[in-house]
Write a structure and sequence with these properties.
By secondary structure, this protein is α+β, with helices and mostly antiparallel strands. The chain has helices spanning 3-13, 39-54, 67-71, 73-83, 101-109, 140-148, 154-158, 161-173, 183-188, 191-201, 208-220, 226-245, 253-259, 271-287, 289-302, 304-312, 317-327, 359-362, 397-414, and strands at 86-89, 95-98, 114-115, 180-182, 262-264, 267-268, 334-338, 342-344, 347-349, 354-357, 419-420, 427-430, 434-438, 440-442. The relative contact order is 0.17.
Length: 443
């Protein structure tokens, strides 16, 4: 493998990671909405149609935690894009859902009007700890990203490639002779954690399962139970950060977090924020990439022609990774809070309103992606928002791409011919994230 070429490709794919400052130049007061039909009328017109088709009116009564949303994810996203650029939820205190690419990008880039400081979950459970820097705004967010970005840059993560590939083969060795595997438990839920724990954190991989379970329950358990699950993750990683603070420095990401940043000249951030940073990065490192891996392999298992094309032309893998990330987004939607009255796609929003940025829909918008419902691994340019937009764009995107490319390449070398086990199919859980719970493969 040409590591220089790989690093160069990663730099091309992720160059917008370092363009986030440009969002500071937005002048939302001068933004003018184009003339459009009345959004309330649009929602009323199509609401009954949605109820008849999906069992719930996802335009006027949306609920991101409703299993019917997860069971019909892609058809509902496509309906939102076509007919309802801004949906409404009345769950809890209520929230808006914005789906079209231009609107999602506008909101994501305008942190002054759409703040992250009150959290990314709608109807946030009381007692749920905040995750820094995800749930913060500049200048706090900027202070942290300035010191964290170098540890997860394309150049920094490229040196993990050999270890990730070795770990992928170690996992494959455990089941290849059986001729079958349950992909999630035996590979997909392990490799991202191994990659992050071994290469970035230095946390024992033996502790991975308890953290994966804690993060999962903190995301999908009943809302009133989520703070306790995340509390256990905070406790474990807080203890680890305290341990590392008292050890000789290694010059790694954990040392940078333990040292902290200044929010104001001479005012160091509190210890709790440093623990929160570690939890947030771990959350992203172990909770998202698995879905893209699993959904992509399920697609390849059921589309042998595409699989054979990838085997025959490994040089197309970079484009395939981007396309898979676009069509199988692990982050469905994250939220912001309006800091003032504002209008989006003809819908008036009040100060304090909560707005979900529907990243999963935005990446399927036909206004920016040709034939968006088609999976095309040969696309020359893949525009998506799966890694977010603006200052909160995913800091781990370079590592995620590396893990995905290593997984697909090593898997196809060892297991070029595989299928879904007869009588089985993938199962999912969907909320602000989407996960695949089971995938039985035979080869």
């Amino acid at each position: 493998m040409d590591y220089r070429a790989s690093t160069k490709q990663l730099i091309v794919f992720s160059i917008d990671l370092y363009r986030d400052r440009g969002s500071d130049m937005i002048e939302p007061e001068n933004h003018r909405e184009p003339e459009s039909p009345d959004p309330d009328e649009i929602r009323r017109k199509h609401g009954e149609e949605m109820r008849n088709r999906f069992g719930r009116d996802m335009f006027n009564d949306f609920d991101i935690d409703d299993p019917r949303f997860g069971d019909n994810l892609f058809p509902i996203l496509d309906e939102m894009l076509e007919k309802c650029p801004v949906a409404r939820s009345h769950v809890g205190s209520g929230y808006w859902v914005v789906s079209r690419n231009a609107d999602v990008r506008r909101i994501g880039q305008d942190w002054r009007t759409f703040s992250s400081a009150k959290g990314y979950q709608p109807n946030r459970p009381a007692g749920l700890p905040y995750l820094m820097p995800e749930e913060s705004d500049p200048p706090k967010h900027t202070a942290w990203r300035d010191v964290l970005n170098p540890h997860l840059s394309p150049r920094a993560v490229a040196k993990y490639d050999a270890q990730i590939r070795a770990d992928a083969n170690t996992l494959i060795d455990r089941f290849i002779d059986r001729g079958e595997c349950e992909f999630i438990s035996e590979f997909g839920a392990k490799l991202p954690g191994w990659a992050f724990f071994k290469n970035v954190l230095g946390v024992p991989v033996d502790d991975l399962d308890q953290l994966v379970q804690g993060v999962h329950n903190g995301t999908f358990a009943p809302r009133e139970e989520r703070p306790a699950h995340f509390g256990k993750v905070f406790e474990y990683l807080g203890n680890y950060l305290t341990f590392r603070r008292d050890q000789p420095p290694r010059g790694d990401l954990v040392d940078t977090i333990a040292a902290g940043v200044e929010y104001e000249p001479g005012v160091l951030c509190p210890w709790e924020d440093r623990v929160s940073i570690l939890v947030d990065l771990t959350f992203g490192g172990i909770a998202t990439t698995t879905y893209v891996m699993a959904a992509s392999l399920h697609y390849l298992a059921t589309h042998p022609g595409v699989r054979e094309a990838l085997v025959d032309d490994p040089g197309s893998m970079d484009r395939a990774v981007e396309e898979f990330v676009r069509v199988f987004p692990p982050v469905v939607a994250l939220g912001r809070t309006c800091t003032r009255e504002v209008e989006v796609a003809g819908t008036k929003m009040k100060q304090g309103d909560f707005v979900l940025l529907n990243y999963a829909a935005s990446s399927r918008d036909p206004r920016v992606v040709q034939e968006p419902t088609k999976i095309d691994i040969t696309r020359e340019s893949v525009l998506h928002s799966a890694f977010g937009v603006g200052v909160h764009r995913c800091i781990g995107s370079n590592l995620a791409r590396l893990e995905l490319k290593a997984t697909f390449e090593e898997w196809l070398k060892r297991i070029p011919d595989f299928a879904v086990k007869g009588g089985t199919g993938p199962t999912y859980e969907t909320g602000i994230l989407r996960v695949m719970k089971q995938l039985h493969l035979v080869f």
